[in-house]
Amino acid sequence: MGAGTSGRLGILDSASLPSTFSANPNQFIALIAGGNQTIRRPHTNEGVEDSREAGIADLEALLPYPQDTLIGITASGRTPYVLGALARAKQLGLLTVGLVSVRPSAAGCEGNCEYVIDAVVGPEVVTGSTRMKAGTATKMILNMISTGVHIKLGHTYGNLMIDIQASNTKLVQRARRIIRSIASEFTLPPTYSGIMTDDEQLDVVVRRCSGSVKLALVVIVSGWGVDLCKDALERRKGFLKAVLEDVRYETVVRVFKN
Questions:
Q1: Where are the domains of the chain?
Q2: Which CATH class is domain 156-257?
Q3: What is the pLDDT of residues 229-249, one digit of tens each?
Q4: What dihedral do alpha carbons 161, 235, 95, 57 form, nearest 10°?
């Protein structure tokens, strides 16, 4: 959560996660001081950033759990809206992270952040305009955090996005490339050998899997039914690499048995 540019950058990063990683929109929530109307019209309600109570109220409205994490984004390190939310989050038992562009900072000195990321970028070209260097550094750090989280959650295979939502022509083509790149590492069952060159056959499999690239890969590599492949992914908590290793092992065992 943040105010002004910091809040907008949080919204920008979280908004891309559902299409990139099939993330649950309710799992990564961005808050900006003054509400959504300040995204495009900052002059309407941006003064809310001066209220610690507003930050607390916005956080509490989400009914957070102790297992949640709050990242408070404040380039100046002292925005009251963010500081109030961080203090309340600590009281509620959340993991608290401060993302600032100065050192020392109020966010760090108040003792409400378990971790402080202080990206000190130096004076801005236009004095005080933290949408510039500080904003760029903030965007990069948020990208690193959200990408790292999704790698840990099993939403990638190597450097490939295996949980993308193929919602337009560009992403459909990307999904095909991802599937073919990974499938080429395996000896495919005869039923699916044509998918390496036949777009229509590949698209049919993806549709059978409700658009899931990850599930389609398990179906294609294993030759198993969709439901069995879903069970295999659930058993491995969604980690494709582990499931494909299981498939490879079962294939080897079957060959030796025969």
A1: 4-152, 156-257
A2: mainly alpha
A3: 999 999 999 999 999 999 987
A4: 80
